[in-house]
Amino acid sequence: QVQLVESGGGLAQPGGSLRLSCAASGRTFSSYAMGWFRQAPGKERELVVAISGSGGRTYYADSVKGRFTVSRDNATKMVYLQMNSLKPEDAAVYYCAASSRLGYVLPSRTDEYDNWGQGTQVTVSS
Predict the structure, then answer these.
(1) What is the rounded end-to-end Cα distance, in angstroms, of the chain?
(2) What is the dihedral sign for C-alpha 64, 106, 39, 10?
(3) Cα dihedral angle (42, 116, 35, 13), rounded to 10 degrees?
(4) Phi, psi of 79 (to 5 degrees)
(5) Predicted confidence (pLDDT) at residue 105 exceeds the cutoff of 90
(6) Bridge partner residues of 97 (DSSP)
(7) 89: phi then psi, degrees, rounded to nearest 5
(8) 57 CB-near residues (< 8 Å, 6+ apart)
């Protein structure tokens, strides 16, 4: 089991930046693939980025490629999402999630993730 706590959400202007952090607990953090999902009002939860346990493989949704960067530090059990060039459509509740699913392809569905944080609100508005 991994417990996750997100932080770093808030208000940003269009074109601005935010950095989300996810603190994990658990002895085997490095064995988990990690994902950041987001859910806007009235929409389904969607995968934004994912990163393998070692950090060597990443996935980015087309909507965030070139703007968002995911990273992890297994020594401190942290996962980060650097969000640049924010757009109003990036506004959502962002969730950090952990998956014990093994495989070369990073997990992409919500049911492939075992543990979830409580979410952090990101608002993009001028």
Answers:
(1) 40
(2) negative
(3) 50
(4) -125, 140
(5) no
(6) 35, 116
(7) -75, -5
(8) 51, 104, 106
The CA distance from 84 to 94, in Å, is: 15
Q: Where are the beta strands (DSSP E) in the chain?
A: 3-7, 10-12, 18-25, 33-39, 46-51, 58-60, 68-73, 78-83, 92-99, 115-116, 120-124
Is the separation of the CB atoms in 69 and 61 below 8 Å? Answer: no
Position 59 confidence tier, pLDDT thresholds 50, 70, 90: very high
- φ and ψ of 6, to 5 deg: -90, 155
- At 46, the pLDDT band (50, 70, 90 cuts) reads very high
- pLDDT class for 1, splitting at 50, 70, 90? confident
Burial of residue 105 (number of CB atoms within 10 Å: 0-12, 13-18, 19+):
exposed
- Say how far apart CA 96 and CA 24 lie, in whole Å: 9
**Residues pairing with 91 in the sheet:** none
Distance of alpha carbon 88 from its chain centroid, rounded?
A: 18
| 52: confidence class by pLDDT, cuts 50, 70, 90 | very high
